[in-house]
Amino acid sequence: MKKRISIIAIIVILILSLTLTSCNNKNTESPNESEAGENLEEENSENEETSTEEAANTANENASTPNETEGNGITEAEAVEQKERADKMKAEYVKALRTIYMDSLEPDGTELVVGEGAGNNFEDNTFAVFDVNGDGMQELIFRYDQTYMAAQHESIYYYNTFIDEMTKILSYSPYNEYYTGGYIKCNASHNHSLCLDFWPYTLMIYSEGAGEYVYEASVTAWNKADFEKDYNDVPFPDDYDKDGDGIVYYIYERGWEDEGEPEPVDYDVLEAWESNNIGKETPLRMDFFKMTEYNIDKFENSSGYATFVDESEYTKYEFGDMHYYLPNEFVEKVEIKEDEDGITFYHKATKEMGEKVYGLKDGYGRIGALMEFSDWDYFDLPNYRYIGASDTHQYVMNLPSDVQMVIPEHYEMAKENGFEVTEEELTEIMDDYRSAYEMAKDLHAVFAMG
């Protein structure tokens, strides 16, 4: 998205942001809170030094055993080579995404229709990086649906690191359904069939020999209630409608041109055919990210391919027109509060202890917030991370400028509120707060615009 922010808007937002920050600090102020922040920064600095030293020691240990094989049965040299190939592939996909975003040009030279008459916001187009054909390598999928119907398509590109070449292995209408086994169910862009309730589709399968997706079959239907005769004035084939529901299906398998038009069949035949093909496969679950500069940056800077998360380790949430994932480990530690303006994350144990020690019944233990802007005048501020935008809103991750931990030395203050708390207990909770706060700093990496 290309935004132009006026100087007046910047000044207004900055004043409002500083005012809100000041109010929040007053409302959540606790004894020696700034001291806690300083201690956290000092300890983080010490931890970083320790982590650096440990990493160096680990690297030296690994370097001393170059011929040692890893748990997956490959040597370290082979692992390094695989990493280099993956990094090269990722760099080429990032380059392709930036060219699409900046120049409206796909890797194969396809020029994208943008501007007046092209449809909605270009950034509402989406991309994913995922191993869709099961060959063990990642592919780049670009879904171009924010334009007029005739120009809409979904392209799959593969970068071959051995020959340094980007290849388009499929281009079809958008909103394809991906399956294991290299199958893709490609829904037709228009329904020109004789059945209004059944959407025609083409089944494609990846061919390693051809290095691309090849035609497997296409399926369409005829509903007598919609059309008593076809476009050639031929009447509905009642003799083939064995179950008498007034609908028959046509399966055009590979080579049908040589064998002639297929005979119409009932749904039980189609169901059995689908069961023998994609019925034995599993749908692939992957997230498509909006075509924003932020999401391209996040993909480039992520440690892996951030377009897919293991659903056994993450929990999916929805807010407005955005969906996002949180690590289960983080979910266990936090309380999530939603209101019309956004989502706030609190460390559960710290929030509860804040009431016992300081008598603060609400709002203590904050570690981050997802904020929603509808005025389109948002700009970066300290501790703010831009997530992305929909047609109507912008989303920003806000990390607190103040640290809301309960100080272990304040354990005796709990007695004033009728609670018995130990210093050891507070130390444990403070350490857990630090852990949750560090998680919150990286949460924006798993947010996905939906």
Structure notes:
By secondary structure, the protein is of the alpha+beta class. Helices cover 31% and strands 24% of the residues. The longest helix is centred in the N-terminal third of the chain and has 31 residues, at 33-63. The protein has 9 helices and 18 strands. It has a 5-stranded antiparallel β-sheet. Strands 5-6-7-8-9 form a 5-stranded antiparallel β-sheet, with no helix packed on it. The radius of gyration is 28 Å and the shape is elongated. Helix 3 (76-103) packs antiparallel against helix 6 (293-301). The protein starts with 6 loop residues before the first helix and ends with a strand.
Element-level helix/strand string = HHHEEEEEEEEEHHEHEEHEEHEEEHE
What is the rounded distance between the termini? Answer: 16 Å
β-strand number? 18
Unreliable runs: 1-71, 303-308
Oligomer: single chain
Total DSSP helices: 9
- Give the strand line-up of the largest sheet: 4-3-2-1-10
Query: Rough shape?
Result: elongated
Strand content: 15-25%
Overall SS class: alpha+beta
- The rounded Rg comes to 28 Å
Question: Strand count, sense and closure of the main sheet?
Answer: 5 strands, antiparallel
Average pLDDT rating: 78
The share of residues in helices is 25-40%
How are the secondary structure elements laid out?
Layout lengths: L6 H21 L5 H31 L12 H28 L22 E5 L8 E6 L8 E8 L4 E8 L4 E2 L4 E5 L13 E7 L4 E12 L23 E7 L2 H4 L7 H10 L12 E2 L2 H9 L12 E6 L2 E6 H6 E6 L2 E6 H11 L7 E8 L10 E6 L4 E5 L24 H19 L5 E3 L1
Antiparallel strand pairs: 1-2, 1-10, 2-3, 3-4, 5-6, 6-7, 7-8, 8-9, 11-12, 12-18, 13-14, 14-15, 15-17, 16-17
Helix pairs in contact: 3-6
